[in-house]
Amino acid sequence: VTKPIATITRTKEIMERHGLGFKKSLGQNFLIDPNVLKKIVAKAGVDENTIALEIGPGIGALTEHLAFEAKHVYAFEIDQRLIDVLKDTLAPYEHVTVYHQDILEADIKSFLQDKVNADEQVRVVANLPYYITTPILMKLLRDELPIHSMTVMMQKEVADRMAAGPNTKEYGSLSIAVQYYTESNVVMTVPKTCFIPQPNVDSAILQLVKREKPLVGIADEALFFELVQASFGQRRKTIKNNLQREFKDRLSKDQFIELFEESGIEPSRRGESLSIEEFAILSNVCHKIIS
Ligand code: SAM
């Protein structure tokens, strides 16, 4: 019986056999703990109706565990060297397809249209390349893709920010961007020792479950996100001060007063105390005043 790919001995053996080193620039920190992988796959709820989408399969550590449970696994890997390795390590699994592609360049919408039937659920499961965690997630969230959930390993600090609620130091525009589309929870923290090479930072698994429809009704999404961004501009300043700096060309003094009065939001509050619903009210009133 061969050992799982995600063990230190097999990982080293595979890398040596293919004459490879780890590329730091591509965020290559491979998992070497099969128990962590079992937990990720279980938390993700992968089953025989699941189409698993993996970003950055590396040498196949997680891919293999997904293959044990999923109906099909599609994995996107940017590093050509690893494509050859994966042909070898994933040879026993016929229901795994690997693509040599940059996930940020891939047309995931048409891809899913081609590959997924109505009775199947798409779940993204990945140990993400940390240098592009946010761009990858925002791409997958924004495009109204038929993705049920995402269970992804990332830098712990980023996971905490994405899952944070109001009145915490982690809460900011990233929390709102993510929670506007999903319900997000940190499901597990993972120590550095579970990776080779060990990353410099602690890691965590974030679970993002897509909301059926966005949390709040928003008249103008671009304006909403602009207003959120501006409200956190200088964290120690009030929303009034932060918004005045950003919107002074679009709103008169009287309109600023109207904005806060009609929203029922105290202008002396700080951005970090506003819930997503309150930002939505503020942006909807702002939209009404401006247009
Ligand atoms: N899944 C493997 C594991 O858990 O051991 C490897 C995870 S490693 C943290 C991240 C992987 O993402 C690497 O294999 C890296 O080459 C790949 N990667 C980096 N940038 C990528 C991109 N833009 N598109 C697709 N894959 C990428």
TrEMBL record:
Name any one Pfam family assigned in the record: RrnaAD
Q: Which residues form the Ribosomal RNA adenine methylase transferase N-terminal domain?
A: 36-212
- Residues reported in the UniProt entry to bind S-adenosyl-L-methionine: N29, L31, G56, E77, D102, N127
Write down the EC number. Answer: 2.1.1.182
InterPro entries cross-referenced by the UniProt entry: KsgA/Erm, rRNA_Ade_diMease-like_C, rRNA_Ade_Mease_Trfase_CS, rRNA_Ade_methylase_Trfase_N, rRNA_adenine_dimethylase, SAM-dependent_MTases_sf
SUPFAM superfamilies in the cross-refs: S-adenosyl-L-methionine-dependent methyltransferases
Q: What one GO molecular function would you report for this record?
A: 16S rRNA (adenine(1518)-N(6)/adenine(1519)-N(6))-dimethyltransferase activity
Gene3D superfamilies, sorted: Ribosomal RNA adenine dimethylase-like, domain 2, Vaccinia Virus protein VP39
Where in or outside the cell is it found? Answer: Cytoplasm
Keyword annotations for this protein? Cytoplasm, Methyltransferase, RNA-binding, rRNA processing, S-adenosyl-L-methionine, Transferase
Q: Where are the transmembrane segments?
A: none
The protein's annotated catalytic reaction(s) are: adenosine(1518)/adenosine(1519) in 16S rRNA + 4 S-adenosyl-L-methionine = N(6)-dimethyladenosine(1518)/N(6)-dimethyladenosine(1519) in 16S rRNA + 4 S-adenosyl-L-homocysteine + 4 H(+)
* Protein function: Specifically dimethylates two adjacent adenosines (A1518 and A1519) in the loop of a conserved hairpin near the 3'-end of 16S rRNA in the 30S particle. May play a critical role in biogenesis of 30S subunits.
Family under the similarity heading: Belongs to the class I-like SAM-binding methyltransferase superfamily. rRNA adenine N(6)-methyltransferase family. RsmA subfamily.
Spell out the protein name for this chain: Ribosomal RNA small subunit methyltransferase A
Naturally occurring in which organism (per UniProt): Piscibacillus salipiscarius
